[in-house]
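Lab notebook, bench 4. Still working through the backlog of constructs that have no structural model yet. Next entry is a single chain of 374 residues. Request: give me the structure tokens for it.
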Amino acid sequence: MAEGKYRPVAVEAARHKAEMGQRLTKEDALALYADNDLLFLARCARAAKERQSGRSVYYTVNRHINLTNICRANCPLCAFQVEQGNARGYVMEHDDIARVLAQAKATPHLTEIHIVSALHPDKPFQYYVDVVKQVRAALPGVDVKAFTPVEIVNFAHETGQSIREVLEILQQAGLDSLPGGGAEILSDRVREIICPKKATTAEWLATMRTAHELGIRTNCSMMYGHIETIEERIDHLLALRALQDETHGFQAFMLFPFHPAHTQLGEEQHLQRVGSWEDMKMLALSRLVLDNVAHFKAFWIMLTLPIAQLALGFGADDLDGTIGEEKIIHAAGARTQTGITRTQLQAIIRETGYEPVERDTFYQPVHFDEEAQA
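Model written out:
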């Protein structure tokens, strides 16, 4: 964005609204982005965070399961997927999942299983329904968070059922909530380039709206730092804000900076990972624009632990969880470890002056009898 596009009076008006906690317009958000005063944004975003969650910073004990990397979408932005027949391809069958669940069952404090996958060309919808049933049977007290809107839309297309019917079947099988991935940038101009075979903007939003109508809470997200414009980023945030005004179904928002390594998009566009200044600027600005979303995650596995900790001063109030294993982001060059202990998460939070709160999927604090666990 060209310097000086916004008149000083427009910037000052936007700064005043941000300081007062008032709702920002698109023009306000663009002016604050162009103003580039990171410390000002941090102060306003931190105040917005504390209005929502006080001195608390949340984390959970969870386990990720990535069912397959074989995908028919072949998105230029993805380093995880491979075509069917590729030697790197894998599919977790029910015996494989049973072994992971046995490990998960032995994990103290576990409250969530997080399942995301690829758009496998052959696996029937029933396979995914059975996975949810399998997790629910093995871990009846654990929340099952599974399948992005992109996956839900794919199930609907494959079966000829509506999005609502697909969600109802999964809900009956034991699904509790949806992750917020697959949104990338909610601009069809961008999606036609970075993920042309995935859900459209309208389909992604419709899936979330339907989930919320069914009582299925969800997260939401944005992947930035590739070919989108700053205006498209703000339009994305405003689309999420409008849906949240309507449904109140989003629990948390997270930012995904694009990792270009090993991706077709990164190679063709000669893209570099955006820096930590941009990460913190977008986090703080997102907190101010999304004034109706209570929680903001600093996804440490993508940001790195030091930057995720820093994010707690820029509006984030959640470090997500222990994770255990993650393949999608690491395929794109992330060098973070694949798991972390709750003790480490607590220490990271306390060092910032905030109070760690262990939570479940729905941001209810959880308490465990440590002696009984031992």
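Notes after review: The first helix runs from residue 8 to 20. The beta strands are 56-60, 62-66, 112-116, 143-146, 177-178, 217-224, 250-257, 295-297, 318-321, 355-358. Flag for follow-up if needed.
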